[in-house]
Records
---
Amino acid sequence: MHGTIIACHECDLLQRAVALPPGGVARCARCGAVLYRHGATGLDQVLALTVAGLILFVLANAFPLLTMRIEANVQQASLLSGAWLLADQGMAGLALLVVLTSAVIPLLKLTLLAYILLPLRLGLPAPGTARALRAVLALQPWAMMEVFLLGVLVAMVKLSSMAEIVVGPALYAFGFLVLVLAGITSSLDPRAVWDRLEIRR
Amino acid sequence: MSAASGLSRPPGLGAPAPEPGPAPTAAGAGLVSCHCCHLLVRPPAGGADHAACPRCGAALHSRKPDSFGRTWAYLVTAVIFYVPAMTLPIMTTVTTFGGARKDTVLSGVYYLLTTGMWPLAAIVFFASVVVPVLKIVVLVLLLLSSRHGGSWRRHDRARLYRLTEAVGRWSMVDVYVVTILVALVRLQALAFIEAEQGAVFFAAVVVLTMFAARSFDPRLIWDQKSESPS
Ligand SMILES: [Zn+2]
Ligand SMILES: [Zn+2]
């Protein structure tokens, strides 16, 4: 890999790739953009995180996030119930955006990664690996679970004066899922996958 | 890589680029760097704009297509939507003990402040009020300076671009707050919360500014006048 000529994706400068020490980051000589990171952790760790992420995703959606109690009234909320109620109030577009960014896209990202990495681990890239990885990279900015978690925190504070709020098991699963997704983003080196795909000439 | 064999020595990573003379760029060498997998490709004779990357299959472009026009269009729409997003209520709270109360983005921040959680109020104020404005201002600045600014403070402009891409997503926080409040506060006899139109405009501003940041091509910051974007 090192010695290859690469172009910076932010300023187009041509430069020669160098080998990196573990944990090292290669930055563009002109604009300072991160060109690539040392893929020390390898794809196995990403695959492990992906499997953990899929399990946490199921837990995060199977249980209530928060429970509210006012006097004798008890109300539970989950991610999907919130979106469902928004749609019910005539806010279908908003509901769709919430479901996409906080559930569908993160799930799609995890599923596609499992589809890419599992066959690669067994030595043979699955058909459509390039297309799947392209989708994963394009979807990256639209998976917003960490922002959703901040939203839950703000909502809890807003309601704390009005009612008693009990944290549900899904919130813990959500917290761990956010950590796992951050771990995937920082340890996935797309070059490690691209390098194993053939170039059609 | 055979495609780059015609080049004189490009600078190594970490070494400063040689100042005199134009810096060697992919576009300058007649090459295209794939937007998706960053493979360096020599485009077919007919031009790069209808070819696909031989490795990942993405469409090849030397620069993002129509970057100026698209980014301006998203920004103008975002500015128009920002007004109702800030002035219209994003939700209504109806309680038997307090009547109906309409909240805008700003009054929601003020309410957080009154609960005594000022760090959280500061985060929400920054994410939902400051960040969208900042993104729009920075992108307008980048568009104007890419057209007319030449080599003016390129490193700072590159840094600003990276910042706008990184913080933009956090503006979504108020949309999620409304969703959770709607899901939780629905005790018909005591209290319930409904989402209002302001939330739709607000979400639209966030999405539009994200599209704007993604359609801007940071390479335009560095392009010399001679190799104007295709
Ligand atoms: Zn660069
Ligand atoms: Zn490609």
---
Amino acid sequence: MNTTPTVPAPPAEPAGPPPSAKGTATRPGDKIFLGLSRGSGILLLTLMAAIAAFLTYRAYIAISENEANFLTSFEWNPQGEPVEFGIAILVYGTIVSSIIAMVIAVPIAVGIALFVSHYAPRRLAAPLAYVIDLLAAVPSIVYGLWGALVLVPYLGGMNKWLDQYLGWTYIFDKTGTGPARNLFTVGILLAVMILPVITNVTREVFLQSPKMHEEAALALGATRWEVIRMSVLPFGRSGIISASMLGLGRALGETMAVATVLSPSFLFSGHLLDPGGGTFAQNIAAKFNEADEFGRDALIASGLVLFVMTLLVNGAARLIIARRKEYSGANA
Amino acid sequence: MAKRIDVSGLSAFYGSHRAIDDISMTVEPRSVTAFIGPSGCGKSTFLRTLNRMHEVTPGGRVEGKVMLDDENLYGSSVDPVAVRRTVGMVFQRPNPFPTMSIYDNVAAGLRLNGSYKKRDLDGIVEKSLQGANLWNEVKDRLNKPGSGLSGGQQQRLCIARAIAVEPQVLLMDEPCSALDPISTLAIEDLIGDLKERFTIVIVTHNMQQAARVSDRTAFFNLEAVGKPGKLIEIDETERIFSNPSVQATEDYISGRFG
Ligand SMILES: Nc1ncnc2c1ncn2[C@@H]1O[C@H](COP(=O)(O)OP(=O)(O)OP(=O)(O)O)[C@@H](O)[C@H]1O
Ligand SMILES: [Mg+2]
């Protein structure tokens, strides 16, 4: 339906080359730089394609021999007879532990970042930021050891408490008596591990929040918290999302720490405090050495799924950020 | 709603640097007072002491008294947040909240002060936008982001935001310096309307603007770079521009320095 009268087309641009395209001589420096950047771009893409092709090929070999459903089976027996393996337990364990980690880490990280960027006196803020930077550099096996030696015994008591008072929620119902080598502990450990990354990135974003909007809020009679709510948080929103995704990426792929803390099993339990479960990365690390070639192909197939999951998470984050773009302040 | 400002012996510091020294003046209610003077003489600094925004700057410190009618803004029991709710401010660069719609920008200050019914809020938002001569241009796009407006419209949006909370005093720091002549005229007209309800203080580098919009004009100067700025004189605008009592004022206005 077109009810508007047709508007005559604007007169065509006078023919001829656009002003800057021709006529300017390309400088050798520009040429070299163009070649270099284009070359490395192509190299990177080829490398990515090669890796993807390799993974897909090996995964295909494994899955075509599989007699169980790869997506829904609770077995992991690629070297057995019959050949049966599936990733249901791994999907569940990876997602649950990551969700626990995010639920704990994101609010705390945002809080710390706000404190460092907008509340702490400068003398305190700088060393604090430095310590958080250091935490991000601790190797994950160290976190794993700390988790196994400190967190697991400590959380044993907390598990009992949760079981006693929150057992009715089903997820906090503990059916056995084993140590706290469960997905809940893994989630907490992952939260500690991704906290520094999320804190650092959000702090950087908060520090860049434009002074003129903070002053606008102040001049309206906003308290410090209201300034943060009106100008800092909305400005930092997409930064918080990106930071969380960075953290989530690390949580999804974390290997050593999870392998050190969890006592893995392929028995499904919806109770978070029951020992067992597993994650993609942990499963690969635990099984890779003892696997034969076909077993490795099966593990590669699971790795491919993790890869796709990470891609999806990133894509979703980008969508969320893009949708807020009109309000992002980029056009202010 | 308008109140008289009575400043006495006011100095402001950035760390140990004294930016303005021993300023005393009276700003009459329901009038426009213009601040003029060369760059760096402390006009913005002084303006920001009038709503306690100066102390927000790291190292910012103030000595002296600012009386708003009979209350000292720097009294020990005075909450700076409350001061800023009664003394509104418009900045040099238009700064609507980019993440908020036009409507929410105007309502932002009101929402800080308490909760309003949707209908009341609608009324105040419309009244404020009309007060800022912006209503007709934005009434069909109240839910669009404020950052999508032109610079002049954004500045009027900021004025609407400031007057929505019915302040006693409105401070404006070079509100037209980022605008074209037409938007500037629009805002000058607006200032003429607003002075019937508010006490207005405006900083400007534009002599004609000071002459056009203000009732009284204050001239600031500094002896040398690095020295604190001082109030040279304040008088009726006509007097300042025709027959100032200090030679430096005349030199500045006639363009002989600064
Ligand atoms: N944030 C700051 N930190 C330190 N010194 C400052 C700061 N802001 C201003 N000053 C100093 O205070 C003095 C007064 O500055 P102010 O901005 O008030 O001048 P102004 O009269 O508004 O100038 P202009 O007309 O250019 O806006 C100047 O010497 C300036 O260098
Ligand atoms: Mg200034």
